[in-house]
Amino acid sequence: MTLEQTRQDRKRSSSAQRDDDAVSLRADLTIELPIRFVHELSAAESLQDVLDTVARWSSTVFGANRASITLAQSETELTLIAMEGNNAIPMDQPVPIYGTMVGRVYRTRQAEYTERFDGSPDLDCQMLSAKGLGCCLDVPMISGSRCVGTMNIAHESPNAFTDEDRERLQAMAHWVAASIRIHHQIEEMEVLSETDPLTGVCNRRAFATRFATLAKRWQRGKGALGVALVDLDHFKSINDTYGHESGDRVLVAVAKALDASFRKSDLIARMGGEEFCVVMAGVDKPALMSALERFNLALSELEIPVADSVIRVTASIGALLIDSDGTDLDSLVNQADQAMYKAKTNGRNRVEFVHVTQ
Ligand SMILES: Nc1nc2c(ncn2[C@@H]2O[C@H](COP(=O)(O)OP(=O)(O)OP(=O)(O)O)[C@@H](O)[C@H]2O)c(=O)[nH]1
């Protein structure tokens, strides 16, 4: 065969492929998306909203008595994230990956249709059957190389779904999987953009936003607002003596000590260099001081191994309490900063405290 013949052959076969694609595209177009569904999706403000909308509409689109979406939770369990209709499997019930039809679909990434439940060995099918359902169709939600969970529709009558329903549900599941993945990627990016890459605590950029949220919650609550500016002592000489990499290890260890010393609801941020800020809502002076003592004790016990010795570190802390509304972050940080400098000039390794009333 000449080169020209080969080229002609290829052209013919790719044009035949295009014709086939066009036919299947026309067939795909029989999947009708109700306009209200699309509007509701566009109004969704969170991933949960999207999944609730999809569950609600998939029961309508497929005339199902139950529609549900499960997401991979761990190596052994899926979790029900959205559900519409028959409550045969309650939302708070984990779905085991082994011993269920949904788990099998997730593992094998192959859609399954149980036309009738009689004698089914699968736990989920048995639960659906016990609540009056007759059949169910389950498809994997795959995006890229990952299966993120499955979509399921069930009907009271056995054998209620068609091959076409299976194709449609699968198409919807792929779209939902892509949507879930994008949401997760955005969440990950948000976390990254708010985190100090070295220590894992909140960075300075996100500090103002987190502070605003915390201050708002506090103004409705009891107690005062405590702010502590923590600045490590003679950190430059640690870098100069042991190298920047050792200095970094000190910063990581200090961030861990901060994390262990304060409540989960307190805000810990790295303000830059070797300076951290802690904000506590709903404290009084004894509570603030005992939290700082706890931290100072943790700091005094820190030993960062280097070559043939260990690095020890101390901190100068400027602490303040404010007990009225109208907290201006810059002014609070400034006042904590002044207290911290006082701690430096008064000999370091100490806490200087100011009580502010605005
Ligand atoms: N290893 C490391 N060092 C940093 C980082 N950011 C800032 N530094 C260093 O931190 C040191 C801060 O030095 P100074 O501001 O003089 O403070 P100090 O030596 O702790 O002195 P005092 O605060 O007065 O006790 C500088 O040498 C900076 O280069 C970092 O991410 N990693």
UniProtKB/TrEMBL annotation:
Pfam families: GAF, GGDEF. CDD domains: GGDEF (cd01949). It comes from the Bacteria. PROSITE patterns: GGDEF. Residues 1-21 are annotated as: Disordered. Its EC number is 2.7.7.65. It catalyses: 2 GTP = 3',3'-c-di-GMP + 2 diphosphate. Residues 223-356 form the GGDEF domain. This is diguanylate cyclase.
